[in-house]
Specification:
4 helices, GIY-YIG endonuclease, globular
Length: 99
């Protein structure tokens, strides 16, 4: 039997306001991380910041960090069209999610 640590890990996909760029990341505090992306927008040292990827489109929740990391890598290796299909399985209209 697997016992949860009470900590959850989120694999998420954000985009910029024009929905032209997708960014996949992982965190244990989704609300904080999305806020950080917003505050860091325009910073050219980081991909998500450089391209203003602070609008949440999709997320998955995991109990184990290893599983979340593996899933993040899997999503990052997907072609853009496949990522869009994945997002649309839970967010058919590609609306920005509020958490």
């Amino acid at each position: 039997m697997k016992i949860s640590s009470g900590i959850f890990y989120y694999v998420y996909i954000t985009t910029n306001p024009g929905k032209t760029v997708l960014y996949t990341g992982i965190t244990n505090d989704l609300r904080r991380r999305i806020s950080e992306h917003y505050k860091e927008r325009g910073n050219t040292n980081h991909f998500a910041s450089k391209y203003h990827c602070h609008k949440l489109l999709y997320f998955e929740i995991y109990d184990a960090a290893r599983e979340a990391i593996a899933r993040e890598k899997e999503i990052k290796n997907m072609a853009r069209e496949r990522k869009l299909e994945l997002i649309k399985t839970k967010n058919t209209k590609m609306n920005f999610l509020i958490i």
